[in-house]
Design brief:
Blueprint (H helix, E strand, L loop, with lengths): L27 H5 L4 H24 L3 H35 L2
Bound molecules: zinc ion.
The site of zinc ion has 9 residues, from loops.
């Protein structure tokens, strides 16, 4: 949600921040600037999930299709969720910093 007006305008895609709030015109893009480290965090998360998938594979030896069926959606959902979460935290943090 937009940190200024509370409208649900923060994301225009599943994990893509909007440039500006369409309700109050808050410049979200400039708040997000400098938040590029979220990409690094997401890479780390993906790495952890892949390691977990490999570990499960070693341990349970499930059929390959089961591994993909389970870990595919889990990885995608986790990454999208993490991106949204981190970006939201970052924008809110930046917004508070920018207040007098
Ligand atoms: Zn707004």
């Amino acid at each position: 949600m937009c940190p200024r007006c509370g409208a649900r305008t923060l994301f225009e895609g599943s994990a893509q921040l909007a440039d500006t709030c369409s309700a109050c015109g808050l410049d979200i893009l400039s708040l997000e600037r400098g938040g590029r480290f979220v990409g690094v965090l997401t890479m780390l998360l993906a790495l952890v999930l892949i390691m977990a998938a490999l570990a499960t594979d070693e341990w349970l030896r499930p059929p390959l299709w089961a591994t993909f069926l389970f870990w595919g959606p889990v990885t995608v959902a986790s990454v999208v969720f993490a991106l949204r979460f981190w970006k939201t935290m970052w924008v809110y943090h930046q917004y508070e910093e920018s207040q007098p």
